[in-house]
Amino acid sequence: MILLPHTQSILLKKLMIRVGGACLVLFAATTLTFVTLHLAPGDPVTAILGGSANPTPETIQEIRAEYGLDQPLMVQYALHLWHVLSGHLGSSFSQHMPVKDVLWQQAPPTLKLMLSSLALAWGFAVLSVTLSARKPVFDSVFSSLETFFAGLPQFWIGIILLWLFAYQLGLLPPAGTHGFSSLILPSLSLAIPLGGFLAQVMRETFKTTLDQPFVLTARARGLSDNAVRFRHVLRHALLPGVSLSTWAIGALVGNAVAVEFIFSRQGLGRQLFLAVSMHDMPLVTGIILFISVIYVLASFLADTLYVIIDPRIQEARA
Amino acid sequence: MNAFSAAPQSGLNVKNLSVKFGLGDVAHTAVHSLSFSLKLGEVVALVGESGSGKTVTARALLGLLGSNAQISAEHLSLNGQSLLANTEQQWRKLRGAEIGFILQDALVALDPLRSIGAEISEALTAHKWGTKNAREERVLQLLTQAGIPSAKDRVHLRADQLSGGLRQRALIANALAMNPPFLIADEPTTALDPSVQVQILELLKQLRSAGHGILIISHDLGFVSRLADRVIVMHHGHMVEEGRTEDILSAPQHSYTRKLLDAEPGRRPPRPATPVSPTTLPLLEAHNLSFSVKQQDGTRKQIVQDISLSLFPGRTLAVIGESGSGKTSTARMIMGFQKPETGFIDFLGKPWSRSEKTDIPEFSRRSRRPRLAAIYQDPLSSFDPRWTVQAILDDALSVIHVPKTERLTRIRALLDLVRLPATLLGKNPLHLSGGQRQRVAIARALAIEPAVILCDEPVSALDVSVQAQILDLLEDLQKRLNLSYLFISHDLNVVRNIADDLIVMQAGRIIERGSAHNILTHPRHPFTQQLVAAAHLIGDATGDRVS
Questions:
Q1: For position A52, what pLDDT does the model report?
Q2: Which residue range or ranges hold the ABC transporter domain (chain B) (predicted)?
Q3: Most CB within 10 Å of its CB: which of A106, B24, B155, B452?
Q4: Are A222 and B160 within 8 A, CB to CB?
Q5: Is B7's pLDDT higher than 60?
């Protein structure tokens, strides 16, 4: 495709706006992390010393000076921002290793968990909505099931699944990070409520789309009811699902904290919890930044998907 | 010549078809023992207003009524084969291949997310027709056949990227994909501009000549009479009259048919021309209004250019134009919702709106807002869906600070003015008929005691007989309350007996202006001549049939 110079400048402008927005998100995440950790009670020195018994006041003073904790708050903030900007995530107080290495180690299991949960939730939502919407009995049964799913807390599902499939039936491992079988139960714990939410928002659009005249036109071509649902109506119902999924990326990390604990999995959620409770500023910042980047990327992806699903959106934006 | 082989019992035969929805006490019969037949090369029109059962009949013929409909008939057959016991599989084989279906508005009758090519191609794949290449070729051929020029460049476009006429042609091409002998067209031209209606009418005529049997469903007796060989008039699910088109038009037997014919807006007498006295000052004056929007490629598209108009007390100024002519943008500027880019508007002798650099703040308009009311095409969407009629009117009266104690009396007076019974006070507009809703909208407009009412396509969504009633009401109110109307419409027939002055718009400009009587009898601009001709063709049901 040949782009006119004018179109190119529009695209460039759009890209600049997106990148600027992403930078703002990352800046806000960094700042909020800093403020929140300083408001929380506790002392990072304890974390740095790793629980060694009764440090002398001199040792504490030394450590404060070494980590810059004796500086005024604004100076600490400026240093903190500077480090993040220059890409130095520093060393974790509590793990005594570079934050980059911790992320490198802990991110893959969490990403796997998020992706498989998202896939399961989508699979459930698409099938439940497409096969049951507006069908007598099925509609109300599946619609209630979705509401029920959406209301379940992740940790509760996790415990029930653990008890049933791991301890009672012995079908799946109760804990661990490696292998496909260890991924099933944690993914289900996260996917069930999310699938319920997704299906609820999609069902609404799906039903209104079923009333559109083009559905009648498609049926009048000789298409079966299910073909019309999958080939035409579903595409219209995807948009609210995609919007919700961007939000879900953020929510999944939060919910991963509980699930990773229940199933004793490695991962960012668990690390984040430990790092916060130990006032491990570099590690918390690193994890939050990493999640923010994932979130920003997911928003980019969602915007691209929007246009692929509904080409009218791009024309309206231009 | 007929391209389809005619079996002895060929055709669609319906005898005593009844359709019922629901069970027991809530059961509602939509169609009562309807009988008719449709042969190849013939056009039969099913005419009726909303709720007459005509659309239900069309869907029954395609087996698309859904599971809560109960269909019974002595006889329902296609080419001698009974359709009554059809399984869903058998229906699917028949849909598209034996009977094609054309709906009202291609913008929503074709999937808005897919190209017209993909949509038409699906009509072929649904019947496992040909290879991929053969289908692509067939789609182009169909588009060309339906009268779409340079189909190759348009096959990848979606319905919303085509003009109203072209996308309706694409919708017809979709129905013709499997070359079905029979076609059912449900209001195939209702959403279109008059000049486009005439083109689609011609296309349907060509299809009849090619041998298709067409069942055309419409609320507009005048329109279908241009095309149909036979007409069936339906009212509340009953067939009230059936016969050859000429007979029905020249000697309607049933009173309902006569009522329908009389309500045709084209049959109503034009308002006699009365000049404005030179000393009268206009209530509303607009000078050189322009407005443009930024387009995708960065250039600006002129929506409205250099529009000037004056509205005098007690008169109606009609603004006529097809979709995209800029009439709605003009209305928005006059309402003070949109700043003009150039020009100015004065209302009641004081500045009302100015171009962007020297705008009038909203608070200086506020005291005059009640003097300018508006009614729209679809009143339902302009009501809060949870409010009753009483709450809607009460809210309007609160705008002009009517004390609470007086409001109920005023509300009753307003309902009386628009000839609605006071029993509707507690009703929700959702449960009113289209005509009743528009009356509530008019009552709400009157509540604030306006001098000017902007009427934006106020009758376009209504049945013909209801249109006539609403137009009569507006005329009567104008006389009694000395109202001025700025009446926006795409349909010359609608304004012919209410307009004193007329403005014709095309592509954002005024191309003709003058007294309505003069323009309707002696249009000067070629576009106006075309509009008047189209209105005459569609509206004048008694004229000679175009063959």
A1: 60
A2: 12-261, 284-532
A3: A106
A4: no
A5: no
Find the CB nearest A232 among B104, B111, B158: B111
Second CATH level (architecture) for the domain B1-98+182-191+204-264: 3-Layer(aba) Sandwich (3.40)
The encoded tokens of residue B151 equal 């189909």
The tokens 């402008």 sit on which residue? A13
Q: What is the mean predicted confidence (pLDDT) over A263-281?
A: 87
Smallest Cβ–Cβ distance between A315 and the set B105, B174, B296 belongs to B296
CA distance readout (Å), B280 to B49, B79, B215, B349, B368? 43, 69, 54, 12, 20
How many whole angstroms from its chain centre is CA B266? 15
User: pLDDT for B278-336, tens place per residue?
Assistant: 888 999 999 999 999 887 677 888 899 999 999 999 999 999 998 888 998 999 999 99
Contact present, B438 and B375 (Cβ < 8 Å) = yes
Per-residue model confidence (pLDDT) at position B543: 40
Query: Could you give the angle at the alpha carbon of B486 between the alpha carbons of B484 and B491, nearest 5°?
Result: 130
Distance of residue A13 Cα from the nearest chain B Cα, in angstroms: 13
Question: Residue B78: is its pLDDT beyond 60?
Answer: yes
Range scoring the smallest mean pLDDT among A229-233, B190-194, B457-461? B190-194
What pLDDT score was predicted for residue B501? 94
> Over 50: is that where the pLDDT of B1 sits?
no
Which CATH architecture group holds A99-317? Orthogonal Bundle (1.10)
Average of per-residue pLDDT across A120-127: 97
Picking from A191, A192, A149, A184, the residue whose alpha carbon sits closest to that of residue A166 is: A184
Predicted structure pTM score: 0.81
Domain layout of chain B by residue ranges: 1-98+182-191+204-264, 104-179, 284-539
Q: What is the pLDDT of residue A317?
A: 62
Query: CB-CB: which of B112, B123, B298 is closest to A221?
Result: B123
Report the C-alpha gap between B483 and A73 in whole angstroms: 71
Q: How far apart are the C-alpha atoms of A129 and A110, rounded to whole Å?
A: 28
Distance in Å, alpha carbon of B125 to nearest chain A alpha carbon: 9
The mean predicted confidence, pLDDT, of chain B is: 89
Q: Nearest CA to CA, how far is A17 from chain B (Å)?
A: 18
The model's confidence at residue B155, banded by pLDDT at 50, 70 and 90, is very high
Q: What is the largest CA-CA distance in chain B?
A: 77
Q: B interface toward A at CB cutoff 8 Å?
A: 59, 62, 64, 67, 88, 92-97, 100-101, 103-105, 108-114, 119, 122-123, 126-127, 158, 160, 171, 174-175, 177-178, 296-298
The burial class, CB within 10 Å (0-12 / 13-18 / 19+), for B204 is: buried
Which CA distances in Å does B379 have to B319, B385, B456, B475? 20, 11, 11, 19
Mean pLDDT to the nearest integer, A148-156: 94
User: DSSP for chain A?
Assistant: -PPPHHHHHHHHHHHHHHHHHHHHHHHHHHHHHHHHHHHSSS-HHHHHHTT-S---HHHHHHHHHHTTTTS-HHHHHHHHHHHHHTT---B-TTT-SBHHHHHHHHHHHHHHHHHHHHHHHHHHHHHHHHHHTTSTTHHHHHHHHHHHHHHS-HHHHHHHHIIIIIIIS--S-SS-SSSSHHHHHHHHHHHHHHHHHHHHHHHHHHHHHHTSHHHHHHHHTT--HHHHIIIIIHHHHHHHHHHHHHHHHHHHHHHHHHHHHHTT--SHHHHHHHHHHTT-HHHHHHHHHHHHHHHHHHHHHHHHHHHHH-THHHHHH-
pLDDT digits (tens, 9 = 90+) for B110-120: 999 999 999 99
Domain layout of chain A by residue ranges: 5-85, 99-317
| The CATH number of domain B284-539, selected from 3.40.50.150, 3.40.190.10, 3.40.50.300, 3.20.20.220 | 3.40.50.300
User: Directed axis angle between helix A281-309 and helix A73-85, to 10°?
Assistant: 50
